[in-house]
Amino acid sequence: MYAYDEIDRTLVNERVAEFRDQVKRRLSGELTEDEFKMLRLQNGVYLQLHAYMYRVAIPYGTLASNQLRQLAHVARRYDRGYGHFTTRQNIQFNWIKLAELPDAMADLAEVGIQSMQTSGNNLRNVTADQWAGVAPGEIEDPRIWSEIMRQFTTLHPEFSFLPRKFKIAITASEHDRAAIKIHDVGLKLKKNEAGETGFEVLVGGGLGRTPFIAKTVKEFVAGRDILSYIEAILRVYNQYGRRDNIYKARIKILVHELGVEKFAAEVEEEWQQIRDGELKLDEEVVEDIRSRFFYPPYEKLPHMPDELKQASADPQFEAWRRNSVFPHKAQGYAIVTISLKPVGAPPGDCSAEQMDALADIADKYSFGEIRVGHEQNLALPHVARRDLPAVWKALDQIGLAIPNVNLVSDIIACPGLDYCSLANARSIPIAQELTRRFASHDTANLIGRLHINISGCINACGHHHVGHIGILGVEKNGEEFYQITIGGRADEGAVLGTLIGPSVPYGEVADVVEDIVEAYLALRARPDELFIETVQRLGVEPFRERVYATR
Amino acid sequence: MPLVKGGQITGDAFAHIADDAELPEQAGILVSATRFLADPEGLLGRPGGKVGVIWPNSRDVDDLVPYLDRLAVVALVFPSFRDGRAYTQARLLRERYAYRGELRATGQVLRDQFVFMLRAGFDAFEVKKQSDAEAFADTVKRYSVFYQPTGDGRITALHRRMQLRHSESAGL
Hints:
The complex is a heterodimer.
Chain A: H1 6-27, H2 33-41, E1 45-47, E2 52-57, E3 62-64, H3 65-78, E4 82-85, E5 90-96, H4 101-109, E6 127-128, H5 142-153, E7 168-171, E8 185-191, E9 197-203, E10 215-222, H6 226-240, H7 251-258, H8 260-274, H9 283-291, H10 306-311, H11 315-324, E11 325-327, E12 333-338, E13 349-351, H12 352-365, E14 369-372, E15 378-384, H13 388-397, E16 412-413, H14 428-437, H15 441-447, E17 452-455, E18 469-476, E19 479-486, E20 498-499, E21 504-505, H16 509-523, H17 531-538, H18 541-548
Chain B: E1 3-5, E2 8-10, E3 14-16, E4 28-32, H1 33-38, H2 40-44, E5 51-55, E6 73-78, H3 85-96, E7 102-107, H4 114-120, E8 124-126, H5 130-134, H6 136-139, H7 157-169
Parallel strand pairs in B: 3-4, 4-5, 5-6, 6-7, 7-8
Antiparallel strand pairs in B: 1-2, 1-8
């Protein structure tokens, strides 16, 4: 955990006061909606189909239990008793009233949570591996750098009105859980030959109408230089990014149009002029940020305690443990992923009661810490393995011991036409139907790791391009149709999925997905060949033949 | 459109001159980049008064560098407050090219961007609305914490923490 100090708190309080004044001026008519729109967006407030939607940042996906309780409070007091975790370590409230927003914001500020720049054409919430600081084999905790980046990006005086939104993600592990290759800037922590910590810098990833996988612009930027290097990237983008067409305004288009070499050269030229300036990070400054992260005092505990041995006789516990429990850097501890994908429910939703109970569970079993991942699931990052049976029971009592992490029903979906004013089609009911089709745990286990991602429009908030199976809602003559791709992935081997055939109407989507899964089961070389590996080995054609033969 | 300078609403000593208009005899003038670049030496050598240029946000400020020490005003343009290119131009003029004359924000200049503009180096504002101009002094006090270093010299949060830490360890 990073603890806000008086300086951070002051800034957030000043922001709340400013927003309160802006809302007052809007309600009095002093500000036009056009003028107010950007101000509210800069504070995470969207106008959706039915109401204002409020998006709150959870920087690098780290939450303290008291913060989660405060999110529960906001859900209850200002919303309809639940929140929705997104694919970028944010939480959204869907039914907030404009006049009450400043109060909700002030309540969150009390616990060091805010919503600055969770929308608008600015530097968005900096995301990171949700297992940061606890994953085995990590270079170092990427949250230190994420926090430095959070401060650097907050209310940046030069880059608050960029051509378009700008998203930065950081990882420090070989296996990329932060999807850095589909971000505007992806940072991969590494050490150079001299043992210095730095970053491989990737630029120009992104989904939406024109998807691109990010390209490396510099193999190694030392940690002390990372802010000046990012500033150079942003300066090039702010000046030369396209502003004539909203669909061509992301940095990925600039990188594509200039070519990555030319873009990298522009950045290099700018960077050489500023790299020795004020943005250079002294080791002392980095250490100061590091010192304000809390690391739990782990005990020396056995890997296979008696409690765990006994519980393993229970097949339901075992089913959950196999899919939800992951290795931890400290012996005797585990990372527990909590699926927010129960059968028949919208992916990522969490009720206020569940949030409160999770905060209690975290206090009791995870040093008061909760993590939020881009798969719209949560995690308890420091659970002693002896406590796993107790954690499972406690989660089960609130309906969150769902044994489907990384399985076919662990679906990523955007809010879609049920909430969103941009959507062409519904996402949530498709996800709900699929979780019903694959409700059998044995079947899901037989299928193995399989990520389904659903977006209700081309803006791709559900990351459909990089789903193993991707589903994109489109509108055709006033009806909801869905394009289906296979073979995408968002990790270190990120690749865009390939269209498997013509789009299908709403009522047929679940059938097609079932057929794809059946084709996979027939085509896979061996039981442990994952879906994504089979597609990689065989290509799309054999799937197309089987799925579309009778359509 | 009220002009705010030195934190106060003030009269404008510079007249906006259209590209085809005659130059006034004794007055400060603000001309377009096109007119300025057509005859920079002629304009700068003019005996009647000081010269400023309105520089579009689509043109590199590098082209202005040879004239900066003789320009009284550089006015940068916000065609819409959503178009933030002039923030970069402002910082480059102040921090890289050490421009010390008046740096004026023009276009859709609104209250809620004053702090960003000050931080980027602007010191004069052609404010769109009278009420925003009147609120200038209060608005710029909204923030006391700044995370990023810019040429405005305000201390950043990172450095303030270091100072606090050092004063603590020195027993102060």
